[in-house]
Amino acid sequence: MPAVRRTCRACGCWDLRACEGGCSWIAADRCSACPEPVPLTLPINQEHVVAASLLEVDRKVTGAVVAITYRAREFPNLVVTVAEAPGQPEDVHVYVGALEVPRDRADQVADLLNERKEAA
C-alpha cells in the first residue's frame, strides 16, 4: 500500500507540520490540539483507515474456530471480521456498511466512508 500521510480531520496538521505549540495523535484522524467534538471537515484518507482503533464487539468460538468482529472507533460503519483456526491462515473480511471491500484496499474503504459521510 502506498505511504499516505496522517492528517488531522479538523485543522489539517500532519506528522511533519504539527499545530503551533505542538500536538500529538489522540485518534486516527484527530490531534490533541483540536477540541472535542470535532466535525469531520477533511476527507477521510487511507492513513485514517489504517490507523483506526478497532474495538472487539463480538467473539464466537465454534469448535477450534474463533470468529472475532471488530468495529472502528472512529468510523462506526467500518467493520472487520477475523476467523482463526489452528493451522489455517486467518480469514479476514472488511465491510463498510453492508459492502465488502478487499482487505488490502484502504483507499476504497476511505472512498466509501467519505461517500457515506456526504450522504448523512
Main attributes?
7 strands, elongated, two-stranded antiparallel sheet, 2 helices, five-stranded antiparallel beta sheet, 32% strand, alpha+beta, 120 residues
Give the total of beta strands: 7
Number of helices: 2
Strand content: 25-35%
Oligomer: single chain
Cross-sheet strand order for the largest sheet: 3-4-5-6-7
Order of helices and strands: EEHEEEEEH
Largest sheet: 5 strands, antiparallel
Poorly predicted regions are none
Radius of gyration: 16 Å
Overall shape: it is elongated
SS-based class = alpha+beta
As a percent range, the share of helical residues equals 10-25%
Spatial gap, N to C terminus:
29 Å
Topology:
Blueprint: E1 25-27, E2 30-31, H1 46-50, E3 54-62, E4 65-72, E5 78-84, E6 91-96, E7 99-101, H2 106-119
Antiparallel strand pairs: 1-2, 3-4, 4-5, 5-6, 6-7
Q: Concise description?
A:
Helix content is 16%, strand content 32%. It contains 2 helices and 7 strands, in the order ββαβββββα.
Describe the structure.
Helices cover 16% and strands 32% of the residues. The protein is α+β, with helices and mostly antiparallel strands and 120 residues long. The protein has a five-stranded antiparallel beta sheet, with helices on one face. The chain has a two-stranded antiparallel ribbon with strand order 1-2. Strand 4 (65-72) and strand 5 form a beta hairpin. The longest helix has 14 residues, at 106-119. The protein starts with 24 loop residues before the first strand and ends with a helix.
